[in-house]
Amino acid sequence: MRSLLSILGVLLSIQASATPKRISSIIKDLGKVEKVYLYPGLISVIEFPHPLLEVRIGNPKALKVEISQVSNRELTLHLTGAAAKATNLIVRSNQKLYVFDIVPSRVSHQDYVQVKSFYGAPERSGADGVLLERGRISPNSSLDRVVKRKAYRVRSSGRFLVGALLLMFLLEVCWGRESLYKKPEPEVVKIESRVVQPVVERRKSGVLRATGNLDAEIKGNIIPQSEGSHVVLPSSKVKLTHPGLRPGDALTAVIEESLIAFPDSKIPVRARIAKGPLKDSVVFGVASLEKSSKRITIEFKRFFGSWRRD
Questions:
Q1: What are the residues facing 229 on neighbouring strands?
Q2: 94 is a domain residue
Q3: Residue 151 class from Cβ within 10 Å (0-12 exposed, 13-18 middle, 19+ buried)?
Q4: Which class for 102: exposed (0-12), middle (13-18), buried (19 or more C-beta within 10 A)?
Q5: How far apart are CA 19 and CA 16, in angstroms?
Q6: Which run of H or E residues covers position 190?
Q7: Distance, C-alpha 257 to centroid of its chain
Q8: pLDDT per residue over 248-272, tens digit each?
């Protein structure tokens, strides 16, 4: 009975540890397929160590993928609907090829996955058999040594497995004999006032499954469809501004030259800041004359700081 309970506890612990984290960093094995869990209505970002060249999707109707416009090493993924099915994703960079399984989930989601590095390579299968059939192998050749080494490893692993099973059987028998000669101890029943429920959910079929890594507020609001991952970019390039000048600051400036304006033209204007931390700095703009009010309007567009400290 104790062995069964211990095995059940190990299985539950393995199931709980298998729950993916929402933000994680991995070292990708190029010989295996990595799983990425997506929740409907949420986006996920996968960052690679090298620039991306091409992305291929198994089912484009279930998954939308975009290469970031800011960094060509980032990939944005999102499901097209709540009823999307599992598909695969093959990403090619300028150095390696990565393979992923995209799994829609109602309990788990991975917001950010960083592929920190990689190792391994695709496994070769069938090549040794073809070489053995095409020609004869000398007893001292390198291929003969490889085949013998592989056979020795298989035999060693089989012997180790049989020995481990035999050792477990002997331990179980010894524990059973020890319990026969051991004086039975009275059972102590502990009654707790508070019962802690395990963090599992039960389906209708009776199979237990983990609740995942999402909060209840997010799992209760499933977005049926997502049109796209909205990547917000600035409409124009942000230029470097003066460290002492912020939007909305009021400055006192003096126009030292004579000012003339015409209705259908713009005249250059220069003004010098008279006081404050930006004293002696210069602003440039244009002046124009309004036809209706006969007033001169000045619009300053450029700022040149004096870089002087008081």
A1: none
A2: yes
A3: exposed
A4: buried
A5: 6
A6: none
A7: 59
A8: 778 888 988 888 888 888 889 999 9
Q: Residue 90's pLDDT is what? A: 94
Residue 295 lies in a domain: yes
On the 0-12 / 13-18 / 19+ scale of CB atoms within 10 A, 130 is: exposed
Whether 224 has a pLDDT exceeding 80, the answer reads no
Mutual orientation of helices 142-181 and 127-134 as an angle, nearest 10°? 130
Domain for residue 297, yes or no? yes
Boundary-marking domain end, from 119, 141, 166 = 119
Question: How big is the CA angle at 295 (ends 294 and 298), to the nearest 5 degrees?
Answer: 145
* pLDDT (average), residues 142-166: 73
Q: Tens of pLDDT along 3-22? A: 555 555 555 555 445 688 99
Q: Which residues constitute the domain of residue 280? A: 253-304
Q: pLDDT at residue 130 above 50?
A: no
21-25, 125-129, 276-280, 293-297: segment of lowest average pLDDT: 125-129
Domain boundary residue, one of 61, 87, 119: 119
Cα distance between residue 99 and residue 169, in whole Å: 41
Query: 24: domain CATH number?
Result: 2.60.40
Confidence of residue 207 (pLDDT cuts 50, 70, 90): very low
Global pTM?
0.43
Count CB-CB contacts under 10 A for residue 300. Answer: 14
Instruction: Please choose, from the candidates 65, 75, 67, the residue with its C-alpha nearest in 3D space to the C-alpha of residue 114.
Output: 75
In a domain, residue 166? The reply is no
Q: What percent of the chain has pLDDT over 90?
A: 23
Rounded Cα distance, 222 and 39, in Å: 9
Total domain count, the chain: 2
DSSP string spanning 116-163?
EEEE--PPP-SHHHHHHHHS---TTSHHHHHHHHHHHHHHHHHHHHHH
Give the three-state DSSP class for 178. helix
Write out the two tokens for 150. 């592989």
